[in-house]
Amino acid sequence: MRIGLYPGTFDPVTLGHVDIIRRACTLVDRLVIGVAINRDKGPLFTLEERVAMIEAECVALTAETGTEIVAHPFENLLIDCAGDVGAQIIVRGLRAVADFEYEYQMVGMNRALDDRVETVFLMADAQHQAIASKLVKEIARLGGAVSKFVSPPVEAALRDRLG
């Protein structure tokens, strides 16, 4: 069984994330969505809320792709999380060239820690490449429309949280 790990904070999960998840499903039999516990980032949503959003977004994707998709919170090193879930592949989404430099360094460090785990980069579809959770939160906080960037349930969660 080919297992992939797609890590992120997912605060909140966006249509760009969902696009990467959908496309990653073509590469693996089981996709673990690693929901990072990153206290330094000060997430808007709790870990439990972010896991629930991921699970809700992935119900239809599981039915559509036939790939098992599970959410897995983690707070350890990414490469250790990959080992914990049995992942042979780490999936990373790229939005722009600026993302690549950081990701390139991370791949090198992860390979030094465990060269059995391969990293695969997927570009979001062109219509989703500019989406960033940080910007979605800022737009929502300032009263702007975010329906082009997140699903209706996530948009409702943002509105509820931000008033």
Structure description:
The structure is a single chain. Helix 1 (15-24) links the parallel strand 1 and strand 2 (30-36). The protein is globular, with a radius of gyration of 15 Å. The chain has a single domain (3-162), classed as 3-Layer(aba) Sandwich (Rossmann fold). The protein contains six helices and five strands, in the order βαβαβαβαβαα. With 163 residues, the chain is an alpha/beta fold. The longest helix has 19 residues, at 47-65.
Q: Which terms would index this structure?
A:
single chain; 163 residues; alpha/beta; Rossmann fold; 5-stranded parallel sheet; 6 helices; 5 strands
Strand count, sense and barrel status of the largest sheet are: 5 strands, parallel
CATH superfamily: HUPs
Question: Span between N and C termini?
Answer: 44 Å
User: What is the CATH top level name?
Assistant: Alpha Beta
Shape: globular
CATH architecture: 3-Layer(aba) Sandwich
Question: Which class do the helix and strand fractions yield?
Answer: alpha/beta
Unreliable spans: none
Beta-strand content estimate: 15-25%
- How helix-rich are the residues, as a percent range? 40-55%
> Could you tell me the mean pLDDT?
94
- Order of strands across the main sheet: 3-2-1-4-5
